[in-house]
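Limitations

Structures in this collection are predictions, not experimental determinations, and the ligand pose is part of the prediction. Treat each record accordingly. The example that follows, with 4'-deoxy-4'-aminopyridoxal-5'-phosphate as the small molecule, is included so readers can see exactly what is and is not provided: the inputs are given verbatim, and the output is the predicted complex.
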Amino acid sequence: MTANSRLIEQDLAAVWHPCTQMKDHEWLPMIPIWRGQGVWLEDYDGNRYLDAISSWWVNLFGHSHPYINKAIKQQLDTLEHVLLAGFTHEPIINLSQRLIKLAPQGLTRCFYADNGSSAVEIALKMSFHYFHNQGQTQKTKFICLSNSYHGETLGALAVGDVALYKETYAPLLMQAITVESPDCFMRDPDSSCREHSIAKFNIMRTTLEQHAHEVCAVIVEPIVQCASGMRMYDPVYLKLLRNACDEFGVQLIVDEVATGFGRTGSLFACEQANITPDYLCLGKGLTGGYLPLSVVMTKEVIYQAFYADFKTLKAFLHSHSYTGNPLACAAANATLDLLEQTPALAHNAHLSKHMHDTIEPLRDHPHVAEIRQRGMILAIEMVKDKQTREPYPWQERRGLRVYEYGLKHQMLLRPLGNVIYFMPPYVITDDEIDLMIKVAIEGINEATA
Ligand code: PMP
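Predicted complex:
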């Protein structure tokens, strides 16, 4: 029995894994990882896997980065954790000051949690509560986009629109108003992504006109709807949305849990539309992929709407036990150091172009309907019929076949349905991109043969 197989047996007897039909592991390998280094993960039998999806989009500068490791170890020797109510610490003060400088102008307050879904819950509750504190108690609803994803907790799930994750729980969820996404995959072949996004905005505008009186906020993933298959739209939509939200007295929640910290080419995706949301949700890459931490950044006027004598009961009495954990903050500060002190974003522009050029041969593939990219996110939409874009039946699990092929060839390419995508750590090299794309193309050939 190898070290891997012993651990797999023990794992499957005790662990229930996330987002997994556990029965699949009767035939799909479970991979026990003993160490990570840069873009590489290594299992207990010595097999290596290039982490092409940054371990669910969290890792920015590679696994076991010496600089982040050191920062966490230093923090560990002084303070591992303290509650954040009534107490504070230098790492969180530094982090907050730095985020305020880096984020779109006007976001001056940081409220922390420990995962992306919780950040979304906070933004939803804060928006509702903001209006409540102003006496606008009729505002109880949220608008979201079709194909959106904002997390798995019940509030976040309610403003998401991925049927696979949501449908079963529908009876438990608040009703959100879902507006058709500007998703450019759905555009007419003779219209540009920008034209399509502008045209689709009319639906949002009409919805705002009709519902503004009862709506607290619109929530969007900016530019890339990640979990629904890396569907993309033009930043102009965000610009129009910001203006319309102002016009109709509705707040804007921008969920950059996945797109934040350079993934789409700019530090934050909403910079590409030059907008400031009312709430900016950040998570995942915030700690470089080391520790759970998330934050909702908001504006002074919103903070002030909660600032009053205790007896007015206007305070935002939301909390999580590990809010603002100092070790996570130390990892986040070290990650911001790397973003600020290395030419990471300029280098990403080079890496993005290399991915773009290397994937070129796949564009004519008979089962690839679209290859789309924003910065360090590149996605390949596999379809049954290239002309009609008829998807493969989901039951065939074609994407999973690419995943299986990848695992046998040193590659972690966990798909989203029939979408294969790359979202690698920023320390990937050109040669590693070449390998990643070579294996993906072979896997796609095999899965669509
Ligand atoms: N928002 C977006 C845009 C996400 O992509 C995700 C996670 N994939 C979440 C929220 C939820 O984050 P978490 O998994 O940390 O709860």
